Amino acid sequence: MDLPADLRLALANELASAPQKNVADAAEKLSSRYRSGQALANGTFLHSRADVVAYAAYRLPATFAAIYAALNEARKRRPDWHPHSLLDAGSGPGTALWAASELWPELEQVTLLERDDGMITCGKQIAAHARSRIVREAVWQKVDLLGPWESEPKDLVITAYVLNELPASRRETLIDKLWSVTADTLVIIEPGTPAGYSHVIQTRQQLIAAGANIIAPCPHNLPCPMAGNDWCHFSQRIARTRLQRQVKQATLSYEDEKFSYIAASRTMGSPIQGRVIRHPQIRPGHIQLQLCTPEGLRSTIVTRKDKEAFREARDIAWGDALSPR
């Protein structure tokens, strides 16, 4: 997938506002801090304008791709649902807002909670280039999610790449707070790592206990069947611009963002047969699919003998839902 044209332009303008070498150096240090999971003394991974611009270049496109993919799968389970209000908790430069506005252009009210002044400034500057009125007019609030904050219930609540940066003792409290301000659907996205998945699965259990319906990626509300060293995650490919390749010192024109996520709703989603949890294995005359189903994990082989199923399987990708047959 590609970034929306107006978001690409906005990022290019942000990158042009700072010396490229400074941004490249900051991106390298930022990448190291993220990989090690070692935040700075103030609890953030950012400490300068160059860091914020580096984040926008280094992480925003991939984060957009993951958030868009997760929201889109939730949308598919609720095709007739059209949220009108959005709360993004821990918004960074507003990445989730851009993704949500692409999927639900009818959004009318958006509030973004972010604790870092530099991120808020960057987010507002990027938003100024948006075609969408709701992106340009979103309300930004400087908020530490671990401190006191209030919100009217919103149709859609998102928190992305936040739990991984919080103390373990505070995650459960934050999830309770987010669910309490969710009028309809809460979507949580984390890195597609064993640690990220562990945060998602703990959140899943907590939300089910609170009465939520899991509409994506899971096809059921039963205990997760993943066991051992396995973990549930997905991947979304995003195209890189020339400037992004330079900042990341990368040669490939794309990157693949691995992510884990959960979409929990106060309403049931349309039923699915299962979710593809690995890349389909395409072989001569058949396709093998690894699925998560209401009956647990299973492997299924689709052959040419079942023409309709085989035709459908050829177009199936990792992360897709299978409709009931």
How does this model look, in words?
The chain is built from eleven helices and 13 strands. It has 325 residues and is α/β, with parallel strands linked by helices. It has two domains: 5-265, Vaccinia Virus protein VP39 (Rossmann fold), CATH 3.40.50.150; 274-322, no CATH class. The strands form two sheets. Strands 1, 2, 3, 4, 5, 6, 7 and 8 form an eight-stranded mixed beta sheet that branches. Strands 9, 10, 11, 12 and 13 form a five-stranded antiparallel beta sheet that branches. It is globular and about 60 Å long.
The CATH architecture designation of the largest domain is: 3-Layer(aba) Sandwich
Q: Give, in order, the helices and strands.
A: HHHHEHEHHEEHEHEEHEEEEEHE
Radius of gyration: 20 Å
Question: Distance between termini?
Answer: 29 Å
- How many domains? 2
Brief rundown of the structure:
With 325 residues, the protein is α/β, with parallel strands linked by helices. It is built from 11 helices and 13 strands.
